[in-house]
Amino acid sequence: MTGNPTIEKISCYHCGDDCLTEAYTLDDKHFCCHGCKSVYQLLSESQLCNYYTYNDHPGATRARIDRRFDYLSEPAIVSQLIDYTDDQVTMVTFYIPHIHCSSCLWLLEKLHKINPAVHYCRVDFLKKQLNIRFDHHRISLQQLVELLYDIGYEPLISLQDVIKEGNAATEDHLVQKIAVAGFCFGNVMLLSFPEYFGISTYEHSFRQFFGWLNVLFSLPVVFYSGREYFVSAWQNLRRKSLNIDFPLALGIAVLFIRTFFEVATHTGAGFADTLCGLVFFLLVGKFVQKKTYHHISFERDYRSFFPVAVNTIVDEKEKPVPLADLHTGHRILIRNNEIIPADAILLKGHALIDFSFVTGEAVPINKTWGEIIYAGGRQTGEAIELEVIKPVSQSYLTQLWNNEAFNRKQDNRMQTFNQKVSKYFTVVLLVIAIASLLFWLPTDLNRGIAAFTAVLIVACPCALALSTPFTMSAALSIFDRNLFYLKNTAVVEQLAAIDTIVMDKTGTITTSDNDNIQLNARLSDAERELVYNVCMHSNHPLSRMICRYLGTHKRLNLTDLSEAAGRGITASVNGYQVRIGSEQHVSGYSRNTSAGTKVHVAVDGNYKGYFAFAHQYREGLKNINGLETDYELYLLSGDQDHERFELIRFFKTTDKLLFNQSPQDKLDFIGKLQENGAKVMMIGDGLNDAGALKQSDLGIAVTDNVNNFSPGSDAIMDGRSFGKLPAFLKFSKDTVRIIHASFLISLTYNFIGLSYAITGKLSPLFAAILMPVSTVTIISFTSLATHFAAKKRKLS
Amino acid sequence: MSVIYFLIGCSVVLALIFLTAFFWAQRTGQNEDLYTPSVRILLDDSEDADTEK
């Protein structure tokens, strides 16, 4: 009964998908759809077929339904999107998620050959951005976007441009500061050598010269490169908190002042190279910490999920209106696959709304005339007309976004180890320094001051400040390689502290809806056409899904259509009798078959097979079985409970499975767990989980397309690595252990240094050796240990 | 040995020139995208062959 099509699989020359028909061929090349064929045509007309020589099947499938870019003709919207414009040219940066290979790069930078009005194109491959300069007299922004769409590179246009904001924020000249510190560090080291190795008496004039040069080189290091440490320490002091920047700033200040005095009073060589080295290494550590993964943006709110503009109907004519200007009373037109941006009443047309975005329930819902449709639903089917009853900012969904969970300060959810330790560290450091000063004060004032400053110099928590960034960045890159993207380094520690895990069902532990249909039938093209036409006439959600699965076919005339509710359809098409529905309805008898919804098909009484609608669980879901010994495991689903029994396998007890949960319910549930002292990790996928993701101590968004989706979460996980979740959790604990160990190492160095320092006889040479040695030990220990841990957890 | 004053002066000036060069490269955005140029250089520039067809 089951069988795969026997025809040899031909893949599309453009996108590599399987070609289901042979209708689309050109120049002996096969294409899966008209879209792909037309892209090829466009490229071959412009002599750009080199596109295909760099990679096999580099294109994006064009089998999607056309969207409209009319809103790009609205000047108000255009002006927000472009970077720069004058009389001659306009510059714009697009984010194009599909950029994935060298062919994309080649083609996009050759846009000027397809349309000469484009002057210049530059791709940033890792950020997936395209920078275009074009002549706006000859091509409009809308035409440009349509051109990109035509060649298969649809830009993701959103008025809330996170990428641009992110770029603006990182402008703090950190690299320049490192360059200056490194430059001075190198020179000072060179100038300090003679002092360390001894200068003969007749060369004593050089000592002064070298000393003052060292002071000179220290100036930019302290006042330019190290400025931020003073600023941060001062700000924290005013807030009456001690962070790690305080002892660092103190160390830098003491180093500089002591160097200056020693050189000025001819009493010694000072600690200029320790000072420059310290600042240099600290800044490098900061750079490593900052170099996190900005190719994925985490800060998105509801605006990035909604369209930029909506088509309103004014005086019988369509007019695109920016989303922000949408008011109560506007009549809006929503086409197939468009999202309803605000709560509205259905006025015209047949609405079949897919609320999977909001509730997680994948089966589309019928709405009739006069019903209220909440924002966030996606229309599937014909265009509908609605009247807006609430502005976007007050709709049901956006209210969820505006929940206090979103306004809460994220940084204070859990204190990192570093923050906890640095408080005590500073206090202990100051106590030792003052104690050694008081100890020497009665006998020898100079020695007392020497000991006091030496303690502050030696105990300067350079290694402590470095251990976290280096361990974390090594850990982050390992997570990154395993398709698990964390927002920042603090998330690793939060991951290690979790004791309760809450999961969403649809889209999180099941894969998204498109793959859920499986055709277990041998259907010829003609039969596909028949099935398509019969299903076209049914409003049953399953029929709709079959239609979507089969793609577009020719319309045929139907006669004798009868639909038995809950059982199936019978119809005559082109002289064939087609029966579609339950097994009972189609073949007359019913067997007990395994779980999952099935729709059977028979043509002229011959049984052909069935469509299976199975919820496919993610690969690796069984791995989570091991988690419940260490973690409390809950499932929250917006769905009906028809899979309760299948899920018990994974969750063991039924009382931890909750169904029919609204987004607000989910948020409240997490809040309740937290009140009982749990550290909750929420794993969800969609807008419907956004509130819960934010409320939880650690929100992970699971997605099949990392670039598509990132609600307010702390981490994004590619669906393919879902099964590695237990390994991720264990690895995060390893990472925290490594940080603790490296902290111990750094303390050991500090003890060695301190035992010299409190005697007041710390030589500059000793400090100059101890400091880099401890730094190198810490950095190599953390990176080696992290990689070993990753190997142990099979993550590298 | 006084020549050392001159030599150190020279070396510092030279180092400063390198530092300025680095600043210039940073300002003009040469370090912003470190990956794409490495791919771009592998793409043949066969425009002539293409257009003459």
TrEMBL record, chain A:
Residues 90-156 form the HMA domain. It is found in: Cell membrane. GO terms for molecular function: ATP binding; ATP hydrolysis activity; copper ion binding; P-type divalent copper transporter activity. It is a multi-pass membrane protein. Signal peptide: none annotated. Pfam families: ATPase-cat_bd, E1-E2_ATPase, Hydrolase. GO terms for biological process: copper ion homeostasis. Keywords: Cell membrane, Ion transport, Magnesium, Membrane, Metal-binding, Phosphoprotein, Translocase, Transmembrane, Transmembrane helix, Transport. The chain crosses the membrane at residues 178-197, 209-230, 242-261, 267-288, 424-443, 449-479, 738-759, 765-790. GO terms for cellular component: plasma membrane. InterPro entries: ATPase-cat-bd (IPR021993), ATPase_P-typ_cyto_dom_N (IPR023299), ATPase_P-typ_P_site (IPR018303), ATPase_P-typ_TM_dom_sf (IPR023298), ATPase_P-typ_transduc_dom_A_sf (IPR008250), ATPase_P-type_domA (IPR059000), HAD-like_sf (IPR036412), HAD_sf (IPR023214). Belongs to the cation transport ATPase (P-type) (TC 3.A.3) family. Type IB subfamily. This is HAD-IC family P-type ATPase. It comes from Mucilaginibacter rubeus.
Automatic annotation (TrEMBL), chain B:
InterPro entries: Cyt_oxidase_maturation_cbb3 (IPR004714). The keyword Membrane applies. The chain crosses the membrane at residues 6-25. It holds the Pfam family FixS. Keywords: Membrane, Transmembrane, Transmembrane helix. This is Cbb3-type cytochrome oxidase assembly protein CcoS. It comes from Mucilaginibacter rubeus. The lineage of its organism: Bacteria, Pseudomonadati, Bacteroidota, Sphingobacteriia, Sphingobacteriales. The gene is ccoS.
